[in-house]
Amino acid sequence: MGPIIEQLTFQSVWDIMGAEVILVLTGFALLVLDLFLDKEQKKLVPWLGILSLIIAGGLVVRNMINIQSATEIGQLSGYLYVMDDYGSIFKLIFIVGSILTLLISIDYLNHVKLPKSEYTYLLLFATVGAMVMASSLDLITIFIGLELLSIASYILVGMRRDSAKSAEAAMKYLVVGAVGTALTLYGMSFIYGLTGTTNIAMAMDGIAGVWADFEFLVMLSLVMMLAGIGIKISMVPFQMWTPDTYEGAPTPITAFLSAVSKAAAFAMLFRVVLFLFSSHINEWYLILVVLAALTMLVGNVAAVTQKNIKRLMAYSSIAQAGYLLVPIAVLGKAQSGLNVFQSLSEIVFYLAAYVLVTMGAFAIISLVTRDADSEHIESFRGLYQRSPFLAISMSIFLLSMAGMPITAGFFGKFLIILGAIHNQSFWLAGIMFGTSVISFYYYFGIMRLMFKKETDGIEPKLQTSGTLSLVVGIALIVTIGLGVMPDALMDVLGKLAWFGKA
Amino acid sequence: MNNPLLYMTLLPLLGALLILFVPRDAKSQIKSIALAATAIPLALAGIVYSRFDQTVSGMQFQLTQDWIQIPYAFPDLPLRIGFDLGVDGLSMPFLLLTAVVSVLTVLASWKTALRTKEYFFWLLLLITGLYGVFASLDLFVFFLFLELTLIPMYFLLGIWGGERKEKVATKFLLYRGLASVGILVSFLALAYGAGYTSGQMSFNMMQIADVFRQAGEGIPFDFKNWVFIVLFLAILIEEAFFPFHTWLPDTHEQATSAVSMIVGGVLMKVGAYVLLRIGVGVLPDMIAYFGTAIALIGVINIAYGAMVAMVQKDWRRLLAFSTISHMGIVLLGVASLTQFGLQGAVFMTISSGLLSALLFFLIGAMQTRTKTLQIDELGGISRQMPILSGFLLVGALGSLGLPGMSGFVSEIVSFIGAFQKFPVLAAVGTVGIILAAVYMLWAMQRTTFGPPGMALEGAQDVTAFEYVPILILLAFIILIGVYPAVLGDLINPTLTQFVKIGG
Fold first, then answer.
1. In the structure, what pLDDT confidence band is assigned to residue A7 with cuts at 50, 70 and 90?
2. Is B303 part of a structural domain of the chain?
3. Which of A243, A365, B4, B424 has the fewest C-beta atoms lying within 10 Å of its C-beta?
4. Please, which residues 381-410 of chain B have a Cβ atom closer than 8 Å to chain A?
């Protein structure tokens, strides 16, 4: 163990996990600062959080540029933690998601009394957890990342202490989430027992070796880890907590759960489950196919009857998780490494589109539901007259979620279908598109409400705040930008050194 | 980039975006923009037509423009998506049809008072989608434009429609959305099939067709078989064939007559275009293999559409079922895979588009005066409005296939083609022609003759403004009827190419 300790110089840690270091330091600084700041000064705390996230984003980009000229990927402590583009691109998604969450929160916190510092540093810690999940190559470290994300999210969900719904949401999320992490850990323990290592790369070879003798144990481990991660991504049948938690949580946190937390779980799913069990994927991929199909079906069908906008978005997010499972599920029939990279680029593109759209939509939802003091979808009635900008933006976000042209969602969905057809998973492609036709029903339903004309016409204009407009603007530019010029991102994805230099 | 097809496709979109910046009260400005954004493409379509070389079969006026590169989609090279446009003998008539009907739809919408700005925005977006569908050579671009038509249609039906508008708009969306699923899945399967056969993947329809033509038996039969079934099912929904037809009568009944013009005139012909372009162009051997089944489905639709049309109480539903019956003839013609059959299919599609546009315009004009289109409530309108009734009669006669008009040529040519391959089915199909005479003339009689069904004091006959669309559409209908070569010469080189492959 000697050399591993020696290797950990401050320089190497800074080089490889500089972004995480910045966020953790800012988090702790805010924790202490909270004691000394007065009320007015605390208003600046979320901005500090945003600043640290921007710096962290810069450091991740630095890593991505460095890796292009590097001969091998950077790593810490014997491949406990790596600096590959797979982790970096996911980290960028998390960071952008968190920045937008904080921007929505700044507006939200002006109207709802919540401790601003706690809120901000918990969000930063949650982001760090997500980043660890994406970059770690060791089961223990990944688990720590998962716990960091989970615990911070439980508290964030329950932050509205005066609200019974918020408490219920946190309680449900905590109980289900705790069972999930326990299952994940239990599943991991089998891997260690069977292979004697917690390093993913080494365990992968080990599992291939013991598969024949211990198939039952390996499958048990797989199923438990799938269940644990499945809870985080709201995969059917582990989706039950989602609508209640989304409804009760503060709206920006709902957006965070729906975007960043889900993206982190996908990063973990791909890295852990797919790699650990890749040697015999053609034997177990049907589990994923069935789960993906069920998730798409349940999410979309259940969303049709929802009248509460946050619950509707919860079911919609379940459906979206189902679409994102498709690229992973189809790898069971993969012919070559090419298919893996195709699936990865689909997931990253779709997630990028999805995170932005979710943030934009929730920014508008946060404003509209607060103004109407109701989360019923009727709050959106006649929005076009009260604020054409918000109504048109929301329509574009909904169109993107539905997968309609000239939005990022259209191209994202197209990519996923293309990959499914490439892997000859025609049925899954059909189910994906078939269920997204169901989704037209509710997405277009909201759009129709927004464009309905109110008879009196004396509705007051809806005032947006600067930060909310900023979120909507960014989301809008990216959604349409990626819809018209997907090459902007596809080009980057084509050049990435996903798992290090080939 | 100096390509007339590109301008035709993007001008309506540009118009739509321009309209967004015009204040909502400046209605005349909005309408002028809409007219310009459809009239200029019409002029361009005329120019393309006049310079179109009718002696060759390939694509002309090609635009090749790289757009997106998808890495990892295919070994070695990234997959290229190109904003590739082009026109050949098959797409030319469809583009002309779009150009003509879209201008006339704008004219027919001139009096739209409800939310004028949004109405023309959506209408122009729809028109861009339609141009794009017929002009694009790239499967992705084609699909993009096809999906693009869904959004404006949803709003055109859902905001400006009749009393059941919301249900019908959703129904339209779900049916057409489902059809898109089948079209996309089969497109991508074809692209990968061609890619792995030739070692080079492309989304270009012409290249895919070439690969399939050269490979012939080299591509597994099972693969082609299921791809064709998926594609054909999608076309059945898209074209509203029995038993997936219920959305069409609902749509026509609830849509405004202007929207019905463009739906019946152009949007409903997209499925036929896909059938000809991809079905016949890429998978002719599957059309041959399933020939009898396709012909049978065609005949069922001819008969079913005609019989159901007879019992309709509403003019719009009657016309919808009459369209279904007519499009059955297209299936019959395509199934025969003969030069005559394919020619008849194109003729029938174009003719039905023109006639639908004309008839929907006429009954729209009638509705503004009578306030109803229920056939039992109408009656005797020829006394008040002899000219309108006269035009309606002409349209009805054209629809039932009176010699000298486009419907007649279409039916004759289709049936000649069909008789060569399926004499019995074709013979049964001709019954549809007789039934068409029955339901059309019976409805005409109840509407225009007999005792007046209502007081129509002071109702004006056809106004000068209304003459424009009527006479233009009639001119095309009669032109094709008396001088079929105007359309035949255009499409023949391309169809000959298809028949060569099929044979």
1. low
2. yes
3. B424
4. none
